[in-house]
Write a structure and sequence with these properties.
InterPro entries: Amidohydro-rel, Metal-dep_hydrolase_composite, Metal_Hydrolase, MTA/SAH_deaminase. This is 5-methylthioadenosine/S-adenosylhomocysteine deaminase. Keywords: Hydrolase. With about 500 residues, the protein is α/β, with parallel strands linked by helices. The chain has a single domain, classed as TIM Barrel (Alpha-Beta Barrel). It contains 18 helices and 17 strands. Strands 1, 2, 3, 4, 5, 14, 15, 16 and 17 form a 9-stranded mixed beta sheet that branches. A 4-stranded parallel beta sheet has the order 6-7-8-9. Helix 2 runs parallel beside helix 3. The chain is globular. The protein starts with a strand and ends in a 14-residue tail after the last helix.
Length: about 500
Amino acid sequence: MTTFIKGATILAMGGQHSAEPFTGDVLVEGDRITAIGAAVQAPTDATVIDGAGKLVMPGLMNAHLHSNEALFKGRYDNMPLEVWMLYSYPILAAKRLSERLVYLRSMLVAIESLKTGVTCLSDDLYESPKAEMELLGAAFQAYDDIGIRATVSAHVVDKNFLDTIPFTRETVPQHLQDEVNKLSPPTVDDYVGFVKQAHDRYHGRSGRLRFMLAPSAPQRCTPELMLAANDLAKEWGIPFHTHVVETKVQGVTGPALYGKSLMRYMNDLGLLNPWTTIAHSIWVSEDDIALMGAAGVSVVHNTISNQKLGAGIAPVRRLLEAGVNVALGSDGICSNDTPRMFDVMKAAGLAHKINNPDWSRWLTASKVLHACTLGGARSALIEKEIGSLEVGKKADLLILDMQTVNFAPLNDIRNHLVYCENGSSIETVMVNGEVVVQDGRLTKVNEKALLAELRALMPEFQAYTRGVEAANQPFEPAFADIIRRCYGTDLGFTRWASDAG
């Protein structure tokens, strides 16, 4: 299939046209961009799209989300992470979901993502009580059917949960500890066998879908498992995707458990590398930032989720200056509670102005857009394929109507995208050269029927969820005590109170 977009305003975000929007044409042949610029010659058999009054730009990248939270969307509020996780990632009473419910859950995320301009996502998929090949396959099938580009993990924890948070053995009642101690986490051999099979089965599917390795966090996984995952990530050329120091509790965890920060612990194990992608990195020191920059890691800044959970604001400007690649993510679909990346871009643009009188250090709209396109692509190790509109790259792009109120009056297009647009101006979404959204309608699946099927299953799921919540609520007082104790702990470095970015 050949598509010719004629006379549009183009924001390429890379290549020779990266600096400024310009007026020109885009030629897509098959799944790739074959020409871009002024006065491009189109083949006679091309489908022509009139670009007058339209903006063509790369699709947005959601560099970190957890689709497994989608059925809790809109359910929880006013909880710090460690309390919130008791319910969204329950310790006790979780049961296997059906493959169909996992499919519909994944589809819910993909529907909202595509319709609001997200053409690629990194789904750090965690299944309770454990990962299963059929459930992972259900998520891949949903993403395949709808036409989105995705990198999907089998998120893993192989330590007793009570040994991943400081002070639990002092605060959690013994009878609850006894229940947790009965649980058996996967072995390293179990995990390696699983991910090898998953990689063989799903990586490269349909030219859009990839697999990644996702040890949950350094305090939640044994060194043996993390090192095995790192070796495979390097061998396969895929991301090692993890979480580090999202909250003050996690900032305390490193010194309490290992006598050093979690980032220094990662570094000393050899786990900070160019293929390492770290979600959050809020409670980091200057030493941590220097280590991350020297290693060339990626950090995914989850602005909205971090605010909703009261976790803090990552020092993005300092990370960028150290040489860290910064991407943007929605994070979980019940800690945000949406995968809409236009929302995240606006929040990122605003958050780093708080308590920072040096406006020369505020993030520009261009830097925010870079983080949500090329920065995100780099975090997934596919920046040579997507993230900008360049000859030879995959045709993942958006066409927006600039006659909408979001672009009126038209001033700086990049500012309009970050601060004025919400996705409602999108007319066309293309992934891999295929139109997957046209005039607000998904072209490959029946959205109305899928959502109706999901709604019909929700009463039973919500009744089950209430039981899970009741089983885990007794942990909450102890976890609340731990949070208060950690917030009274001096980590020995100054937070970015005068420099949020």
